[in-house]
Amino acid sequence: MDRALRKIVVLAKQIAPLCAAWLVILLAVSTEGASPVVADSRPRIVAFGDSLTAGLGVQVDESYPAQLQRRLDSLGYHYRVINAGVSGDTTAGGLRRVSWILNSKPELVILELGANDGLRGIPVDETQQNLRQIVRRLQEAQVTVILAGMKLPPNYGQDYTTRFEAMYRTLAKERQVAFIPFFLEGVGGSALLNQADGLHPTSEGYKVVVEHLLKVLSPMLSEREQKTNPSRQHGCRGVGQPAFAQYTHNRSDDGSVTRDDLGFLEKRVVDAVDENERDQYVIQAGDSAIIRRPFRHVRHCRQRLDQ
User: Which of 200, 218, 222, 297 is catalytic?
Assistant: First the structure.
């Protein structure tokens, strides 16, 4: 028995180095070509709310914060949207979470809370005080706030529902914050845009929510970018989507699009930004190439040049 045990020990000593060598090789292969983790340095927008923000009943990528992220990306706004929605949360719960929200170091917070307070019949004064403290603490941390108002079903009584809705307007004026009168504008009460419970939007409903939100958010983000980089200001006014310049050019024999082509397009653009700020997209279409440049720093300009 001792002799057999000694043989096992000797064999183990011989195998161990081989195992270690193979482990090193496997680790090297598994990490070869792996991309280093790059920290996301984009300024942060925190969606702070309850189940309407969390996206109860829809896929994570269909919640309003996820859809907002995609819309901001498509519009050229370089912000990271963080979903800080907690289903069932009240304003009291939100107040307890403010420190956690601030740990995310947001530049902007979209505050959507209070619906659960109303559904539970919590006194309006209590809800308003909680919201007031939340907004105050965010502002003290130099965070910009967008306050989203809510409404209640009429069966809660006219006096209560009226005071509840007015609470948001009063607070927005008092704290001088951007205000969305009704977070579910165009969605609330719609059987097509809400889930079976009649309270939470579907994926399509959240698309509507995001578009209404952008009417308030987009001008704010553009203004912030202009203050950060004044060279991006070029006098375009009005409300709408970022401008595009588009020009259809017959391709050369080899199918390429030359710098001269881009130069011709340059002359057709009234509100241009410097070369470093332009993203160039070329879409091949039949015998022509469509050169399409989004000018994301043209402030709310609806100009579109097509020829």
Answer: 200
